[in-house]
Amino acid sequence: MRRILFAMPLLALPLLVVGPQPADSACCYFAAKDKDILQPAQKAFLTWDEKEKVETFTVQPKFEGNAADFGMVIPTPAKPKLDEMPRDFFKELAVFTILEPMDIQKYKNLRFGAPGGGNVLEKAANKKETVKVLEAGVVGSLDYKIIQASKADDLYEWLKDNKYTYSGDEATLDFYIKKKWFFTVMKIDPMQMKKRKDGSYEGEVTPTRFTFASEKLVYPLKITQISVKDKTEALFYVQAAHKVDLPGDFSYEFTWTPMWSQATSFAVPEKLTREESDWLKYVQPKVEGDLKKVNDLRAKQHEPSTLEWARKITEKDIGLLEGKEKYNREAPKEDVEKLKLLKGHVKQGQFVTKMRKVFSKDEMSDDLDFVRARVGDKDDDIEYVSILPTSPP
To answer: What pLDDT score does 106 carry?
Structure first.
C-alpha cells in the first residue's frame, strides 16, 4: 500500500514564534504581544486563467498556540474576492491525486536490481490616511478586512494600533507596497477550535479562496522569509491550461526527467505512446546534465523540486468526482465518496500539476512566478498519474 498524503505542508509563516517551523505560507500571522501562534502546515490550490488574467488560490492554514485571538496577512497583486470553500476540500484533493497502480503490462521487463533502481535521485483602527480599509466582511468563521497602504511604516503602525505585534520588518511590507499590492487581514477565533489540556488551541481554519486579477500566475513567497529559520517545505496544486513548473533552479525537471526516463527504459516499446517515445528520445541526452544539476543544488544545501502528480483532467476524471467512475486506488471509502466536493473546482480540459519544493531561506528573496513546464525549447506535457518503477515510496 502506498503512502496517502492527506496532510499537505505548505508555506506557513507565523509572526511570534519560538523555534524552527516546519512550513511557511502565502500569509504571515500576527498575534497579541507576548503570545505565541504556530502554523505547522498550510494547504494551497492555485488556478490560473491566462486569457482572462484571473488567478485564485485557496488556503487552509493549520495553527496551534496560546493566543486568545490572532490573524493573518495575505498580500495579493489586486483586490481579491473571498469565498468559503468546503472544509474537506484539501483532504479530497489529496485523495484524487494519489498515484494509480503501476501498469505491470507496460513494465513487464522490470529490472529492479539495475544500478540506481528506484533511488536514482536519492531519496485596526485606521489612524493613517495612507492605510485604507477597502472592504470588511466575514467568510466562513473568519472576519476579514482588505486594506491598501502607501507607506510601510504606517501599515506597521496600523497593525500595532490594533493591538497586534508584527515580528517582521517594514522592508518586507514595503516590498509589496511598492508593487501596489493589496493586503487581506483575517481575524481568527481559536475558541471555535479544539482546546488542549494546557489551555492552548489547535485546528484548521475555514478553507478560503482568493480570486484576483493578475498579469501572471504568482505566489507570495517573500513574505514568509522573515519567520523561516533554515528551510521550509511547500506543496503546490496548480490548475491551468497546461502543465506548470517553477522557474530556473526551482524546476522539478531536474528530478522528474531522470526518474521518468529510467522508468520508461523498462517499458515494452510497443506499450509506449508516440508522445512518450518522442519525449524519451529528446530528454535522454539531458539526463546526465540533470543529475549533475541535482548534485550541484544539493552541494549548495538547496533541495530540488519534485513532481508528484500531473494530469489533463478528462471526462472520466469528472465522472470519478460524480461517483460515475470506479476509484482504482486505496483510500478510505468515506473519503472516496466525498470526492464530489471537488466538482466544479477541478475542471475538465485543465491540467492539474502537483509539485513539492523545500525552500532554503536564501531561496525566498522574491515571490514565485509559475511557468509553462518545459525542457529546453520543448513543452513538457507528459502526465504522471500511475506509479512508475522509479517512483519514490
So the answer is: 87
